[in-house]
Amino acid sequence: MEELVRPTSTVSEPPRHIDLQAMPEIPGIPAPAGARTVKTATAHTAQASNATRPASVESATAKSHPASWEKRYRAWVIASDIVAAFVVIGVSAFVIDRVAPQDMHAFGTALAVLCALPVSRAWSPRVLGEGPEEYRTLGRGLIAAAVLVALGGLLFRALDVQPWVFIVVPVIALFAFPQRYLLRQVLHRRRRRGLCLLPVMAAGSPGTVADLIARTKTEAHVGWRVEAVCTVDGGGAGSGSGEIDGVPVVGRLEELSRHVRRGGYRVVAITADQYWTPKRLQRLAWDLEGTAAELVVAPVLMEVAGPRLNVSGVLGMPLLRVTAPRFTGGRRLVKEAVDRCGAAFLLTLFSPLLLAIAVAVKLGDRGPVIYKQRRVGKDGENFTMLKFRTMVPDADKIRQNLEVDNEGAGPLFKMKRDPRVTRVGGLLRRYSLDELPQLFNVLSGRMSLVGPRPPLPEETRQYAPDARRRLLVKPGLTGLWQVSGRSDLSWADSIRLDLRYVEDWSLALDLVILWKTFRAVVAGQGAY
């Protein structure tokens, strides 16, 4: 009989199996009687893992522990935060105390930061490298530190703490956030090379498991590597298959806890399957107690996430609350203000560049500088979108002769080598500089800095009901589609990303998208 053992090699190497009759050495646990000790594992098919295991084998439980890279990365994060805080506080103490000496202010601010960050889970291994949540916990920790400093000033009647609350703590944030970002970039680069990945055991139906495996491969920065699978019958994706998308199926769902304990997996990902009842999930959670494995259950509402999901207990039952998306209210007013102020600032900042591009387009072929096109905005209302002209003046007429060469997905028309694009236009498109005049659309209130892609009227006539939900908000100068592949996306992926933004919008998400847009534009990824 066989069992999966988590490999320590890179992601390119397949997981290995061992024969349970040839038990590996486990410190402090004697090998079962009759078993021979070996150092290496030999590969077998996963079907034999369904056999009954001896009781002596079940006692040899291998518990997983944080890898050395996790400890080192957490130590680097903590050290960078502390160094940033102490340097800023030290310099501030030198500067501020020259005007109004207060020795305890610096000490109190340092103590507040050291207490607030761990209490806010800003150093928790579960959030480090985990998307916007890491930045949110860091922000909450620094806000809590500022509140503690203010309360300390009131408690000890030190009313001159305002500079420490409103200047020193924000300056600490200006150093801490970029440091976190740089450390994450180092971590993500290593993960793309197959390093610093968490071993995952996936359990569910073959279809949902295959989707999870595909996502972990395309989004390696998340840090998951599915190394083994359990299904309801112990079979793979096809008849007689022992694997799913190259990952071996090691057993049935009822054997999941035994495989997890013996394999040393760090994450147990539960995907949709009729087998999973509340009672079985509860039993699985109990069986995994005492291990370092984190149980992650994927809800049926796969594309709903972020602030709309909340878990609460009602009548003694854990319920997943899904709030309705909000398209009006205070947060939308803030977004409107940020859009218009941001557009005005960017137009002022880029005015010399706008002028230079206009001159280059005009000198290229003496045609018009601005290309005006009807697009569909919020609630299906048409508006005129502005762009720098990147094609020959009669491009719309020529398009009819190029329909047979269309490379776009769905109703989109795209060509990687479009003969209508001018020499100057090709450069503008590569770095998305042709879209800068859309800042005037944002300033006028017809577009947003971040939102779904603005569609053409003929595209919307082909929309399915779900795709029409893109029109519930203003279209954006950039969006999830812009930072996730741009023109390389399929039509289905483009719709999925736009709907995710519509449903799960937040100000924090807008800031992340704007930053990623800058990176994508500089690299010229997916633009043509």
From TrEMBL:
<dbReference type="InterPro" id="IPR017475">
    <property type="entry name" value="EPS_sugar_tfrase"/>
</dbReference>
<feature type="transmembrane region" description="Helical">
    <location>
        <begin position="141"/>
        <end position="158"/>
    </location>
</feature>
<dbReference type="Pfam" id="PF02397">
    <property type="entry name" value="Bac_transf"/>
</dbReference>
<feature type="transmembrane region" description="Helical">
    <location>
        <begin position="164"/>
        <end position="183"/>
    </location>
</feature>
<protein>
    <submittedName>
        <fullName>Sugar transferase</fullName>
        <ecNumber>2.7.8.-</ecNumber>
    </submittedName>
</protein>
<comment type="similarity">
    <text>Belongs to the bacterial sugar transferase family.</text>
</comment>
<keyword id="KW-0472">Membrane</keyword>
<dbReference type="InterPro" id="IPR003362">
    <property type="entry name" value="Bact_transf"/>
</dbReference>
<feature type="region of interest" description="Disordered">
    <location>
        <begin position="29"/>
        <end position="63"/>
    </location>
</feature>
<feature type="transmembrane region" description="Helical">
    <location>
        <begin position="341"/>
        <end position="361"/>
    </location>
</feature>
<keyword id="KW-1133">Transmembrane helix</keyword>
<keyword id="KW-0808">Transferase</keyword>
<feature type="transmembrane region" description="Helical">
    <location>
        <begin position="73"/>
        <end position="96"/>
    </location>
</feature>
<dbReference type="GO" id="GO:0016020">
    <property type="term" value="C:membrane"/>
</dbReference>
<feature type="domain" description="Bacterial sugar transferase">
    <location>
        <begin position="335"/>
        <end position="522"/>
    </location>
</feature>
<feature type="compositionally biased region" description="Polar residues">
    <location>
        <begin position="39"/>
        <end position="62"/>
    </location>
</feature>
<feature type="transmembrane region" description="Helical">
    <location>
        <begin position="102"/>
        <end position="120"/>
    </location>
</feature>
<keyword id="KW-0812">Transmembrane</keyword>
<dbReference type="GO" id="GO:0016780">
    <property type="term" value="F:phosphotransferase activity, for other substituted phosphate groups"/>
</dbReference>
